[in-house]
Amino acid sequence: MSFASIPLEDKQRALSELRSIKEQFSARHWFPGTSGNLSIRVGEYAPDNFHFAITASGKDKSVSTPEDFLFVDQHGKAIETTNLKPSAETLIHCEIYRKTGCGAVFHVHTVYNNIISEWFGDQGAVPAQGIELIKAFNIWEENAAIEIPILPNYAHIPSIAELVPGVLKPEIPGILLRNHGIYAWGNNAFEAKRHLEAFEFIFEYLYKSLLLQGSRTTK
Q1: Is the per-residue pLDDT at 218 higher than 60?
Q2: N or C: which end of the chain has fewer CB within 10 A?
Q3: CATH number of the domain at 3-217, out of 1.20.1380.10, 3.30.450.20, 3.40.225.10, 3.65.10.10?
Q4: What is the pTM of this model?
Q5: 89's torsion region: left (phi>0), alpha (psi -120 to 50) or beta?
Q6: Alpha-carbon distance 88 to 34, whole Å?
Q7: pLDDT at 209 > cutoff 60
Q8: Given a cut of 60, is residue 219 above it in pLDDT?
């Protein structure tokens, strides 16, 4: 499907959803210093042909303007004539869409996801078990255990993007960049938001559990 053939209402719906999600996450202070990026796919999907709307680079996400988003293709290149620039991290979104066929990808930087990704960085994954919010990923086993992949935080974004396919797990809709942030995705914006909120709960839970364990050992 060409971008021009995608119904206008589908494009407008994606932009409206992005504005709403951006406002909600900004209120939680999940976009410090213009960090983070959000995207929603529009139109039909094929691994070598898809399009998505994404937050523009360098914007203050605590305010709304007519130039907060742009549309890009499967290579992360702007589709329409614009002065806006997609984030360099758009390439990571491209790989996630290409390999999963998902409908939305959200990336945020928080203190909890940074600290936890650094703490478990040498292990290559964050282990979590028996935490209620694991159910948000449709994992319903008793005392379920998961591992959330961690990738190195290279300055050269294409080097990170190349690693994405090798760590994707169908049952875990998220990837951490070490001491950087998390990418979470879903079939649509609602699901991606649910997954991201669950990951952030898990990271805060693990962080505070580690603090409690440390306090016990010092008594």
Answers
A1: no
A2: C
A3: 3.40.225.10
A4: 0.95
A5: alpha
A6: 13
A7: yes
A8: no
Q: What is the pLDDT of residues 71-83, one digit of tens each?
A: 999 999 999 889 9
Q: Is 107 marked within a binding site? A: yes
Q: Is 180 within any annotated ligand binding site?
A: no
Quickly state the pLDDT bin for 42 (edges 50, 70, 90).
Answer: very high
Write the DSSP assignment of the chain as a string of letters. Answer: --GGGS-HHHHHHHHHHHHHHHHHHHHTT-SGGG--EEEEEEEEEETTEEEEEEEBTT--TTS--TTSEEEEETTS-BSS--S--B-TTHHHHHHHHHHH--SEEEEE--HHHHHHHHHTGGGTEEEEES-GGGGGGT--STT-EEEEEEE---SSHHHHHHHHHHH-BTTB-EEEETTTEEEEEESSHHHHHHHHHHHHHHHHHHHHHHHHHHHHHT-
pLDDT classification of 189: cutoffs 50, 70, 90: very high
